[in-house]
Amino acid sequence: QSVLTQPPSVSGAPGQRVTISCTGSSSNIGAGYDVHWYQLLPGRAPQLLIYGNRYRPSGVPDRVSGSKSGTSASLAITGLQAEDEADYYCQSYDSSLSGPVFGTGTKVTVL
Amino acid sequence: EVQLVESGGGLVQPGGSLRLSCAASGFSFNDYGMNWVRQAPGQGLEWVSYISGNSRTATYYADSVRGRFTISRDSAKNSLYLQMDSLRAEDTALYYCARTAHVGNWFDPWGQGTLVTVSS
What we know:
The complex is a heterodimer. Chain A is 0% helix and 44% strand. Chain A is mainly beta. Chain A is globular, with a radius of gyration of 13 Å. In chain B, β5 (45-51) and β6 (59-61) form a beta hairpin. Chain B is globular.
C-alpha cells in the first residue's frame, strides 16, 4: 500500500551511525516533492524530525540529518543513543494519488 | 504550548459509525489545515483526510475512506472531527490528528491518537 519503500530495520551500537533510505518514484520524490521524517515511540505522539528534506525543527539534535537525491531520500543518525530506538517514517506527496504518502517504516535498534 | 488531543475512539461493530474529535490549543486553529492519519496494528502510517484552514474548508480523502468518512472543523470550539460511517474491520487503527505546516505539507504537531476497533 505504501508507495515509499524503507528497510524494515536497521541497527547499530551506541555511538555508531545509521542511515535509513526512502525510495520513491517519478510521481513523488522524483517529481520534486519534499521529504519529511518522523519518529514514533510507543504511547507518544509522533514527532517531526526533518522537514523540507534537510531542515531540523528546534529541539531536534544536530546528529540527525536528512538528504534527498533523485527518487530517494535518507535519514542519518550519528552518535547513536538508546533513546533513538524507535520507528521512523518518511513522508512526501504523490501527484498520482493526489495526497500525502508515507514510507513503509523502519525500526531502529540500538544494540 | 501547541497541543492536539484526540478522543472518541472505541469498539464498534462492522457497518457502524463513530465520531472522532481533536481538541486544539496553543495556536490559531483557524489559520491551519488539519489532517487525520491512522496506523493499523502492526502496519505503517496512512494519511486519511485533510481539511483546509482560513474558512475555505476544502476537504480531501484517501481512496480507502472516500464516501464513508467526513472531516469537519469548528473554529469556535478549536476542534477537528472525523465522522466515520460504514466502518469495516480494516478501519481498525490508532487515529491521529495532525496540523499541516503553513508553507509545506509536513505534519507538526501530532496528537497521541485514539484507538478505533471495528469488530463483532
